[in-house]
Design brief:
20% strand; four-stranded antiparallel beta sheet; seven-stranded mixed beta sheet; 17 helices
Length: 549
């Protein structure tokens, strides 16, 4: 008898197996007449592109979703079951393996409260080990707590919520090897924000992993997560799962969010949240009432001297933090927020900043021909990551960002198999819009920029970030394309940038080599942008006698 069959409840083993292959087989063939599910045949009276299909039940386990999650986490689709957040997976595991009043789970307190909550609802016992006094993970203490009780499931949150405590993967392996009759579940809800590696590549036997899209990928409201385990365990859990666990709107939002062109922006966001977390920790260490600070996920765990007084100040400011007295007498969990949210939180602790707001923008632009994601930070030179599908265009946009002195992450999936035109134009429109948004109210900028780099070509670019779009391009090209970028589109690129930036852009180029002429235009544009974007003086003056731009 296999491990899964040995540990599962007899009632679950008696249920007919779920046809997991059919559950993931996909939607009906196009044109099929669906009269099998007692659905309402009329379209819903709701707006929005995704709402058009909600009169029909979604696929039980959408094949596209399972494949995308499997690719994201590095496992086979047969090892994965999509759930309503990882909370649902916790509940399914306990229902599949724990007999009421007989079996138990083990946890390491303080930790995520759902483990014990779902166990008690099921009627299962809860065995507790604890972190050390200084909130470190102690594998020996966990093994000692489980030695006699022989729990069916052991939940290890890594990094731990709410303390941020990391759990060494080597400790998880040792525990799984020492407890062969316990399913060891590594809950990696916050792993993207940690320095430890994921255990997904090692899943099998009694080692399971939980993942969620709520934290790193911004889909908390969609409620999408998954269990990754041996396929036999997946099949048993599937018997407990509701027939349609995920709403169609959540499925569509997930596939949109995890589209290839979005992934560079996710990486940038995760890196920014990690950096902001450490910056906040450094700032809060200067606050006398804070006795200790720990970091681990997308949050900080503080121990404060007077939590009641802090709660009153937070209530007056309209800020919600999570108090965790079970973790430490003055325990408070602080989620890393936006720049404005973080500043408001710091003000409650008496820390105020006079620095000007950062000049950042993120933009998603989807059409029938292209899907584009852009992130810009005008006050940071790195990272620069550009993937348009046209290698030379990537190089040109990288030159703009490098010479302009700003960070640019841009990715596009477009219909290049038809023609580059749509991608080239839409990318310029998206980039210009992101630049305009990042500029904000334009206070303190130089506004005007000009560049006249000269080698074997003469490229001149003049810019006025005036709010009034105008474009003039003087120059010709003899070759039809350079590196896959149609030269006839170069003037159009600057026209699209001018329109979307609401700027006046004048470009003039002369020379013999079309490659160098195109490159000269983009380099000069970047140098002119650097001058126009630069903050001058105190950084609060509006560069216009009219008082508006």
């Amino acid at each position: 008898m296999s491990l899964a069959q040995r540990l599962a409840r007899s009632e679950i083993l008696a249920l007919p197996p779920t046809d997991t292959a059919a559950a993931a087989a996909g939607a009906p063939i196009g044109g099929s007449i669906k009269l099998d599910a007692n659905e309402n045949p009329f379209l819903p009276l709701a707006a929005g592109a995704h709402a058009a299909s909600v009169n029909r039940y979604p696929e039980p386990q959408p094949a596209a979703l399972r494949q995308r999650l499997a690719d994201l986490y590095g496992c086979a689709p047969a090892q994965l079951w999509a759930t309503r957040g990882s909370d649902d997976a916790i509940d399914l595991l306990i229902r599949a393996f724990c007999r009421p009043g007989v079996d138990s789970i083990a946890i390491v307190e303080p930790t995520f409260s759902a483990y014990a909550q779902f166990a008690r609802v099921q009627g299962a016992h809860v065995i507790s080990a604890r972190l050390t006094e200084d909130l470190r993970f102690d594998a020996d203490a966990v093994l000692a707590a489980c030695a006699d009780a022989k729990p069916k499931l052991l939940f290890l949150c890594t990094p731990n919520n709410p303390t941020g405590t990391p759990v060494d993967p080597a400790d998880v392996r040792r525990i799984a090897a020492t407890l062969p009759d316990t399913l060891v579940v590594a809950d990696e809800a916050y792993i993207e924000f940690a320095d430890t590696s994921s255990l997904v590549p090692e899943v099998g036997g009694n080692l399971l992993v939980l993942r969620t899209l709520s934290k790193a990928y911004g889909l908390a409201g969609a409620r999408v997560g998954c269990l990754i385990a041996d396929p036999e365990i997946i099949e048993l859990v599937a018997r407990c799962s509701p027939p349609y666990p995920l709403p169609s709107l959540s499925i569509a939002a997930t596939l949109d969010t995890l589209a290839p062109e979005r992934m560079p922006l996710h990486a940038d966001r995760i890196a920014r949240l990690r950096a902001d977390r450490e910056t906040l920790a450094d700032q809060l260490r200067a606050v006398p009432e804070i006795q200790s600070i720990r970091t681990g996920g997308n949050f900080l765990f503080l121990e404060v001297a007077d939590p009641a007084a802090l709660a009153q100040r937070l209530a007056r400011a309209g800020i919600r933090l999570r108090f965790r007295p079970n973790a430490a007498p003055g325990g408070v969990r602080v989620t890393v927020g936006t720049e404005a949210e973080n500043a408001a939180m710091l003000a409650v602790f008496g820390l105020t900043e006079s620095a000007r707001p950062s000049r950042r923008a993120e933009l998603v632009r989807d059409t029938k021909e292209t899907r584009i994601a852009v992130a810009i930070d005008l006050d940071r030179a790195e990272p620069r990551s550009i993937a348009t599908g046209i290698g030379f265009y990537d190089h040109m946009l990288d030159q703009v960002a490098a010479h302009g002195g700003f960070s640019l992450t841009l990715a596009c999936s477009g219909d290049l198999e038809i023609d580059p035109h749509h991608s080239v134009e839409d990318i310029a429109l998206a980039l210009g819009t992101a630049l305009r948004q990042a500029l904000g109210d334009k206070r303190g900028i130089g506004r005007f920029g000009f560049a006249l780099p000269m080698d074997e070509v003469r490229a001149e670019v003049l810019i006025d970030l005036s709010g009034r779009p105008f474009s003039k391009f003087e120059g010709t090209f003899d070759t039809p394309d350079v590196g896959g970028l149609p030269t006839q589109m170069v003037p159009h690129i600057f026209r699209s940038l001018a329109d979307s930036m609401a700027a006046a852009i004048h470009v003039k180029v002369e020379g013999d080599n079309d490659h160098h002429k195109v490159e000269g235009c983009f380099k000069a544009f970047g140098r002119a942008l650097r001058m126009g974007l630069a903050i001058e003086g105190r950084g609060d003056a509006l560069p216009s006698t009219k008082g508006v731009l």
